Each structure stands twice: as structure tokens, then as C-alpha cells.
């Protein structure tokens, strides 16, 4: 019997599939709905993850491809699904996301949608946006940006120059988006946030159930993005082919500022400087005070963080920003792992770690079964990432700080603030306090072993 090669096999991968990211992007658009073209399981899996993370009802339709649709094509299933969805939800935008199955049988979703619009006479009544998101091609990270790019390609128009600043956000929390808006409002009241999940996935309680949650980026704002003053794209690592900001730059000449997630001093400064440069406004006193408070907090905690050796895992963008925060504060990000492929992530983190005389190992396209033994070998004492790391936490007994997506073993993920000076300081305090707890939890045992036992033996 020939020996199987497991070298490229992922066990418990540190990623989710492309339509997951695409769904998250569409959830930030006003009056939008999603239909996943494939088997029902794909949509159930995505719905379940999003609902558990945000603690909100999450509706995602499915074209429910069966054996027949798989063999003869799923056009009629998709059209039926779209018809039902429009009747029940009356959305303004529909994202049609493909799956492994739909892509493998070579479904022409663009063609099916064109036919459907003509048959149902829907031109100008609803925007139906096809996004090719085969689960096997990339991860939720690429799916998220690609869906945003497709929205912009389908909706942005050749418009006269306007005063708006486009801010394309990455996989941050609802509270983070509120904070990004607050910071941006110091520079301009004309901001387009794409996508804006701050209300749709963190909605206030109401006694009446609404099928489509209010909030999200308005379609007429996306249309204006082609005439904006600039695009600030939080996505330093995303490839051009997936980048909405790159499309706006190449098609409409909108200047593009590609930046990292504003976590940590360097990257928050970068975000604020970009806004200041675009608007020609000086940085306001209030933000300077917040920066000063963050510096003060960094001084308070620096003596504890030197003992921190971290393993960070999740999407490339969050990995980069959190590693940067750790490095700036003396906590060594010894292991950085992502399920995506990103050479740039490795280059940037290694270069920054070197500047601070730290050594770091960056694992791309990797999984938790690779990480787990390395946590022990590298003396990791703090894990930072999504709930998917909880099995490693249980096995190796190292505390886990939940950041990123998905978080389903705790509540409040959508309310955590991680960006800006305030959010960075909150996250830094959480990391420092976790390390302090570790020290306090076992210092009596360690003192006993290190001092008292040798004295007894002497
Ligand atoms: S990996 Fe493919 S089959 Fe699995 S949920 Fe994603 S799209 Fe569906």
C-alpha cells in the first residue's frame, strides 16, 4: 500500500472559508440579504458562526443544491431562491456567493443573474451582486475583501469629485467601527465606512422583530465612492486583486492610503496621520491627549510585559496589528499563525521584531495541530486569537485572550474595543493583567521550589 503524504493536510485549520468572509461584508450593507449558491450545509455553517459571535439573528438564504442540481446545473434552484428571498425580505442589495460545489460544477452565476433580472423585470429595482467565493480557493479573509471589491465594482459610479473619504474597514468589532467613526469625525463629517456592521450586527433591543436590521452602509454612499477625496483602506496586506481601494484608484483615480488595523501606537498614528494628510487638518488636542494616556499606560505596564511570550493567530491583518502592539510593549510575539497565505505578513513582523531585538516565527497557511506542540517548545505563556484556539488553551493550559472572529465561547465579542489609542490601551491592559495573574497564581509554588526546598536540602 502506498504511503499517504500528509505534509499539506490541514488539521483544525486556522481559517474559515471564502463565503463566510463574503457574508460578513454584506452584513454591513443597508437592507442587504445574502444567498449562498450551494448545498444547505454551507449556509447553515456560516449563519451559525455569525449568529454565535454577534448574538444577533442572522438570516442567510441557500439555493439548496441537491443531486439533480449538481448534475444538471443549479440555475432553477438559484432563481427560485432569489424569488423567495425578494418576496420575503424585499432587500435593496443581494449578495450571491458561490461555494465549492457551485464552482466545481462551473455555474455561470453572472449569466443566471442576468437572465433572472430580465425574466423578473428587476432592472433598477434590486442590486444583485455575484461574488465568486469557492471555499477551497482562499479563506474568509480574502472572501471578505473580495465581496467588498465586487460591491464597489457593481455599485460605484463615475461621479463628480466630492468631499467624502472612503474608509474600508477590516475584520474589526462593531465597537471598533464606532471608534473609527469617532476618530474620523475629528477630521471630516463626510465619511463613508465600508462595510458598517456597527448597527446591523450589534442592534439595540426593540420589541418588534425586523427581518432586515437597520443600519449599514447606504447604497447611495457606495455610488459616491468613485468621486471621493481618498480611500483609507485598512488592509495593509490584502492583494490588489481583492482590494476595493485599488479598484477605486485604478478606475476613478481615487488616491489610496493602505494602512494596518489601527491597533498599537505605530498603526494608530498611521491612521490618524492619513486622515490629517487627506483633510489638511492638524491633529486635534483630544486625540493628542488620548495618545499621551496610551503612552502613560505603556509605561505603567512595560515592566510586566517583558515576561510575556505570545502566540498570536487569526487573520493576517489582525495578526500584524496585534503583533505590533506586543512588540511595542516588550511582549515577544514568538509564534504568529494564520491560515491564509501572506508573505508580506512574515516580512513585516520579522523586520519589526528584529528592530526590537526579538525573534519570531511566522506560520502561514497553518493550523492548530502545528501550533499546539510549538506552544510548549517555545515557552508560550499567553495565547491571543479567536475561540478556535480554546482547544490549544485547554491542552497546554495557557490563557487565551479572545480577539478576532469567531468568538463563541464568550459573549460580548462585538462590544470589545481594540482600535484607536483607547482600544489599544484596553487590549494592552487585558494582556498585561493576564500575565500578572499568571505570575501571582503560582509565585508561592515557584518561591518554594526555588528557595525553600534547596534550603531544606542544605
Ligand atoms: S468550504 Fe466549501 S463546502 Fe465547506 S462550507 Fe465553505 S463553501 Fe461550503
TrEMBL record:
Which keywords accompany this UniProt record? Answer: Nitrogen fixation
GO MF terms here are: nitrogenase activity
Which domain of life does the UniProt lineage start with? Bacteria
SUPFAM superfamilies linked: Helical backbone' metal receptor
Residues annotated as signal peptide: none
Record keywords: Ligase included? Answer: no
Nitrogenase/oxidoreductase component domain span: 17-436
Pfam family for this entry, one: Oxidored_nitro
Q: Which family does it belong to?
A: Belongs to the NifD/NifK/NifE/NifN family.
Please report the name of this protein according to its UniProt entry: Nitrogenase molybdenum-iron protein NifN
Task: Identify the taxonomic lineage of the organism of origin.
Answer: Bacteria, Bacillati, Bacillota, Clostridia, Lachnospirales
